[in-house]
Design goal:
The protein is mostly beta strands and about 425 residues long. It has three helices and 34 strands.
Length: about 425
Amino acid sequence: MKRRDLLAYGASLAGVSALAGCATVQAGDVTSTTPSLAPADIYIPGYAPWQARFQGVPAPAHPGLRKAIPKGYDGRITMLTKFGLDGSVRQALFPIRGHDVAISPDKRVGIFGAMERQTYVAFDPETLDLVAMGRPFQPDWIGGGHSVFLSKKLVAVTERAPKIPYSGTPEDHFGRVTLRNPQTLEIEHDFSTFGIAPHEIRLLEDGKHAVMANYGTTIPPGGGTSYGLPLHIVEPSVTIVEVESGKLVEKYLGNTKEELRHLCARDRETIFAIQTELQRDDQDARFFKDRKIAHTFDTSNADGTSFAVAPTVRINTRSGRLKPLGSGANRQKMRHGLSIEYDPDHDEVISTYPSTHTVIVFDADSGAVKQVTDCEPIGLEYPCGIALLPGQNYYVVAGNWRNLYVFERGTHKLMRELSHYPINFGHSHIVAV
C-alpha cells in the first residue's frame, strides 16, 4: 500500500464513533474488489451563486448560466447543479429562492421548491432549461420550500399563508397544498395543510395520503414583518391529509419551543420528524464550553442566530405523542437536524446534523440509534443533503459547501473510491434519479 493510500485509509477509519448502543462500523473499509456505481444524476441547489465564477465571470452575470432569468428580475437567484456519477456537470441559474428539488416519475420535468418567495419554477431535468414559472396560491402567499409528485402529471407544493402578525386564531395562518400541472404550474386543486408554515411534504406508500411538517412559526402579535427571537411558535405539527378529499386524518402536535421542519415516513404508523430550535448565536459558548481546542465558526449560523440541541422524534401514533430519540452524547449531536430519509431495504432512517458534522442512523421500528458517524474527521463538513441512489445499495451525503460522499446502505461504510468532491455552493437537500 502506498503511503498516501495508508494515510487516507487511516483517516477514514477515524470517522465513526462507537457510542453507547451503537454499532461500530469502519467507515473506510477497503473492499477487495473495487465496486462501481450505476448511472445516476444528483440535483444540488446552490444557495450562494454570487460566490461562484463561471469562465472567469461572476456566475450571476454569465449569459450562459442566466438564460432562465427574466429581463428586469431583481429577486433572489439560486444555482442548480446536475451532477452525474460519471463526473459530468451541468449548471443553471433560476429566478427563485430555491430550496428542495423534486423530479417527476418519468424524469421529464423538475420542480424547484421556493422558500418564502413568490416565484415558482419548473425545469427540464436533462437540459436545466426553464419550462414554466408560477405564482402562489393567492396574493402575498409564499412558497413552503418542498414539493412531491403524486403522478407524472400532478405535483403537490407546500405554500405558506402571508407573513402577518399572529391573530390569535391558528386557522388564520394555516398553509395550503396546491396540486399543479408540472408543465405549466397552473393550479388544478388545493387543500389545507391544517398547520402553520408548512415545509416538507411526503406521499405515503398508499399513494392516498400526504404527511407534512409544519413549522408553527408566526410573526409575533403586535406588528412587524420579522420572526425575531425567541420565535413565536404556535402548534408546530405533523399532519396527515387525504389527498383526494383534502380531509385531515391526523394531527400530531409538538411543543412551542421547537419548530417541526422535516420528516420521513415508512407508513402512517412510522413517522420520524426533525425538530429545530433557534437561539442567539452567543449561546454557542454554552454548547462548546467543554471543548478545549479551537474550532471554526459555524457557517450555518445566520442573522445572529444559531441552532440549539433539539432531538429528532418518532411519532407514537397511538398516543399522539412525539418521542424524543437518542440520549446522552448521541442526543447532543442532534443540533440543526436537516435532511432525513427512510431506507426501506434495511428499515432504517438516516438523518444529517450539519452543525455537529454528524450523520445518525435510526432503527425505523424502534427508533433506537444504530450508528453515529462523525463526518468531520473523514473530510465531510456540514453534511446536509441525503439521497438513496435508485436501484443501488448505496446512498450519498453532500457537504453543504463541497463533497459528495458515497456510503453503503445497511453497513454505512464510506466508499471513498466511489465518492466525488464537487463544490456545492451551499444547500440543504439533494435528490438522485
